[in-house]
Design a protein that fits this description.
The chain is α+β, with helices and mostly antiparallel strands and 430 residues long. It contains 16 helices and eight strands. It is elongated.
């Protein structure tokens, strides 16, 4: 999930909008319905399983001990902060033992105290995101717990070294990961149907992290089943791994724009410089696009900055969905974006620019009872045609963008085919 915006949602000169009072209401209606469904199922499951579960002092002691370990891990990483957007942690190392060792109702309850602690101590975000995250994790852990306890009559058998309970525990841990990822992926895709499924499901890095979490959760469960005091030995390595993971994510977050998830200007420039050097070395073509949202200030003035942020997010997602994996796209500041197209000639660059313009023009962002549509203007420059280095290409594309705005916006413009004379400016053509 993305980090919350801190800007106001109030239209200038008007009363607070429904989006300002209830940020969830600013989302797409299918997403709101899906989130309400997840939370409702979670609450019904908690209520139903609570009625058939007899609490015991031993179960409560194990539950509180595991939650305390999770709280210690959160406190140990609190000073590092939490990166914007969807972040990964190793708290499953404490949720999975709850699901395997205790009755299923505890698995549904386990995410709640730790999500509250994250909200209060690490990063305050809009409350509905914490609620939905707790519900998604709880449902996934609860389902895994139900499957495990339906096949293993005594969770203590997990510590006997017998093959079947361990194999089943591995399968249930994988089920937890699959369900949790699927619930979040459906929410992300419902929020933005243009986003590719592979962008919200697994990649190589997330699969590796899921495998690490699975192994940690099973090791902690076995140690906890052997002797609760062994948690003292399990806590330090888990805490160290979580700090390392959070530090790596914060380093990656420093390269991205917090609103859109694209590369920020500095990171994009570094990537673009690398691609330009490579293109000079190999003799390949390369194109640069500057994208500007037309009349974006009107959106902020009319609907508020929260809705304006949603427009930025929507445009960024549309750009990313229409580009190749190796294209370099970033936010250049304000309502401007930059795209580098390796191995693209003039015809290909123009085709891509027109496709982006068309797709963004069909995009709609909900705001109260209206659907906001925007258009974009684009300036295009080709390496060795309009410039040799990044500065020259940016200058040429910016001049072409300025011409597109002069001609009425919602169009693609290119500089003239020849290189500009020394000290001169390139001509433009649309």
């Amino acid at each position: 999930m993305t980090a919350p915006s801190q800007t106001s949602a109030k239209p200038i000169g008007g009363p607070p909008s429904r989006a300002g009072r209830w940020p969830l209401m600013a989302q797409r209606r299918p997403l709101v319905g899906y989130l309400f469904l997840i939370v409702t199922i979670d609450l019904v499951a908690i209520a139903g399983l609570s009625l058939v579960t007899v609490p015991s002092a031993g179960d409560l002691l194990v539950f509180c001990s595991l939650m305390a370990c999770g709280a210690v891990c959160i406190e140990a990483t609190r000073r590092l902060g939490m990166p914007a957007g969807v972040s990964r942690d190793l708290l499953s190392a404490w949720w999975l033992p709850v699901a395997l060792l205790l009755p299923p109702v505890y698995a549904l309850l386990a995410p709640i105290p730790l999500q509250i602690l994250l909200q209060l101590r690490v990063r305050a975000t809009v409350v509905y995101r914490r609620v939905v995250t707790s519900a998604a994790i709880g449902l996934a852990a609860g389902a895994a717990s139900l499957v495990f306890h339906s096949q293993v009559d005594d969770p203590a058998r997990l510590t006997e070294g017998v093959g079947w309970p361990i194999v089943l525990a591995v399968g249930c841990a994988a089920l937890f990961t699959i369900l949790n990822t699927a619930l979040i992926a459906v929410a992300a895709h419902t929020a933005d149907p243009d986003v590719r499924w592979r962008d919200v499901l697994w990649d190589r890095e997330s699969l590796l992290l899921d495998a690490v979490e699975l192994c940690l959760g099973l090791i902690v469960a076995i140690m906890c089943g052997l002797n609760l005091l062994l948690l003292v030995l399990a806590l330090p390595p888990v805490m160290l791994l979580q700090r390392s993971l959070m530090h790596a994510q914060l380093q990656a977050a420093a390269r991205t724009d917090p609103k859109t998830g694209l590369l920020n200007a500095a990171a994009w420039q570094r990537e673009a410089d690398t691609e330009i050097v490579r293109a000079h070395r190999t003799g390949e073509m390369l194109a640069l696009l500057i994208v500007d949202i037309d009349h974006f200030k009107r959106v902020n003035d009319t609907y508020g900055h929260l809705v304006g942020d949603q427009v930025l997010i929507g445009v960024a997602a549309t750009l990313r969905s229409q580009l190749r994996d190796y294209d370099v796209v970033g936010r250049f500041g304000g309502e401007e974006f930059v795209v580098l197209l390796p191995r693209a000639d003039l015809a290909e660059a123009r085709r891509v620019a027109e496709r982006l313009r068309s797709r963004v023009g069909r995009m709609a962002v909900p705001a109260d009872d209206a659907m906001i549509t925007v258009t974009i203007s684009l300036g295009v420059a080709i390496m060795n045609v309009h410039g040799h280095d990044l500065i020259e290409l940016l200058a040429a594309a910016d001049l072409a963008l300025y011409r597109a705005k002069e001609l009425g916006r919602d169009r693609v413009c290119l500089p003239a085919q020849q290189m500009p004379p020394p000290g001169g400016k390139p001509a433009t053509a649309c």
